[in-house]
Amino acid sequence: MPNKLRWGVVATGGIADVVTGDLRLLPDVEVLAVSSRALPKAEAFAAKHEIPRAYGDYKDLLADPDVDVVYVATPHVQHHEVTRAALEAGKHVLCEKPATLTLPHLQDVVDLARERGLFFMEAIWSRFNPLTVKLREVVAEGAIGEIRSVRADFGFTLEHDPAHRLWNRALGGGSLFDLGIYPVSFAHMLLGEPETVAAHGSLVDGVDAEVGMLLGYPGGETALLASSLVSPLLSRAAVYGTRGLVELPGMHHAPTAILVNGVEHRAEIEGAGYVPQLREVVARVKAGEVESPSISHAESLAILRTMTKVADQVGLGYD
């Protein structure tokens, strides 16, 4: 394996632009190639980020023998197709969340990655934020006692436009899979997979405009979560224990500060915030590992099981 891992970026949208910028901050990474369905877009993206190779089809990028790792940033509905093709081509994969929209598709790529001995991870970047790491540490140390309840939401108002990917069912739209995955992942990180799931929401054009979720656990613990495209939710989180609480006062998926029993903790955020996640991928690939303990294959499957139950209850279910 070369000293520098050579990455290929599939798609050129907003998230690909930001993550590629952070990729270029890592000294042991070379962003070698990018693809888009429109070659001029790939060429413009390549020029912006000083990427030497641009392709008009992701299959051409996957056929490039010099690409070691593929970052999949396509619309949700294409994640399974592109991830499977990348693994079949012998590439390691970091795929934007949700890694797939259905459990059979996620199990398929997990099984394939393990069979081929290739790294695969769902890009839930919030897990690697230094303050999220700090949160896990203080909880493990018993700073707030036993966790009894978690509250988290993420939402904003987005003008209804059937062509926009978040309002377009054909592109895997809706608040749950794009925004709600953060609160659900947050609850899973702290309490594990729930025993019961209750959800209610509203649909527009076949996708969820908003969802409220109540997750229940065997010991009586609860998680109250929400996502929305029609209300400006505070996007905060709180973890309540028997001896105190941790508050994430703003944008809990990308915190810049947390309060542990009223005491503020801050940390330096590298780049746009994706650097720790990308560094983790590089380290695990170089170590020959197929997954990260911070967001393991089993946990991605558990999160998607919860989200599938929510989707089915609000009438969103994807085939």
UniProtKB/TrEMBL annotation:
The GFO/IDH/MocA-like oxidoreductase domain, residue ranges: 134-246
Domain of life: Bacteria
UniProt xrefs under Pfam families: GFO_IDH_MocA, GFO_IDH_MocA_C3
Domain Gfo/Idh/MocA-like oxidoreductase N-terminal: 5-121
InterPro entries: Gfo/Idh/MocA-like_OxRdtase_N, Gfo/Idh/MocA_domain, GFO_IDH_MocA-like_dom, NAD(P)-bd_dom_sf
Entry GO MF terms: nucleotide binding; oxidoreductase activity
Keyword tags: Oxidoreductase
Family assignment from sequence similarity: Belongs to the Gfo/Idh/MocA family.
Protein name listed in UniProt: Putative dehydrogenase
The organism of origin for this protein: Saccharothrix ecbatanensis
